[in-house]
Amino acid sequence: MSKFERKFGRYAVRNLTTLLIACYAVGYIIQIINSNFLFYLTLDPWQILHGQIWRLVTWIVVPPSVGNLFTTLIMLYFYWSIGTTLEHTWGCYRYNLYIFSGFLFTIAGSFLAMGLSFLIYGNTLNLSDPESCAALFRLGSLFFSTGYVNTSIFLAFAATFPDAQVLLMFLIPIKVKWMGIVYGVLIVWEFIQGAATSVVTSAGSGFLLDIGLFPRVAILASFLNFVVFFLTSRRVLRSPKQIRRQQEFRREVRRGAGSAITRHKCAVCGRTEESNPELEFRFCSKCNGNYEYCQDHLFTHTHVQ
Known about the structure:
Elements: H1 2-8, H2 16-33, H3 45-49, H4 55-58, H5 69-90, H6 92-120, H7 130-140, H8 146-160, E1 165-168, E2 172-175, H9 176-193, E3 198-200, E4 208-210, H10 213-222, H11 224-231, H12 240-255, E5 281-283, E6 292-294
Helix pairs in contact: 2-5, 5-6, 5-8, 6-8, 6-10, 6-11, 8-9
């Protein structure tokens, strides 16, 4: 990935989370003015194949369903916060890759759901009756939204910062990893349930179809980027030898054996990040050798020649 980053990193979109939140804001405004207009923006593969190609992009504007204005603002701020943190931690390129791969997997999943619908309900669906097909995929397109993509962003944040704390209900401090586990269990349960029951696709045809296929495919597609990124990450895939070495290191630290291990030490005053965690340390490019200095002596020391 480093080669691709060197080649395409300059094309990465800066402040991508802010742009996504802006898209949601536009979607909420459209929902308030004319909610029916959102059906012309959803990720509907049937309509895309019939010429409405703008849906490949405009479905990002369709906002996730949250509730009243207060909870909506809290949700937008929360996802802006964790998304911005991930962008600063991972880097702009990697965060772009994570988000856009989630979008591409979701688009591919919508077309996959349409193909599976024709395979499963081939005897019921009839291409010569476009109204019934359009009605089915119109309902199914509602599941292919940014809601599941947002959840994948939260899971990525929980996997990156498992010990970070948030205030649940603005009162209860809880570690993000426990919220991530709860989210994961709810997603699995929603996948099993299908999040839908049989619906009438057309008043004229009068037949029933189970649209539970659509949320299941949407869940798998939206979280495929999370699986790809973190199952191929060294943070997740560690050999037993690496795990044992990390456990031994933690035991040594708890015992306090020897002196504390430090990575930064000022060549003038000898202070480290252990003794003075508030300090910043930098190497001097003008010194002949690897000499590191704290922020108080970085610009005042005598250069080593």
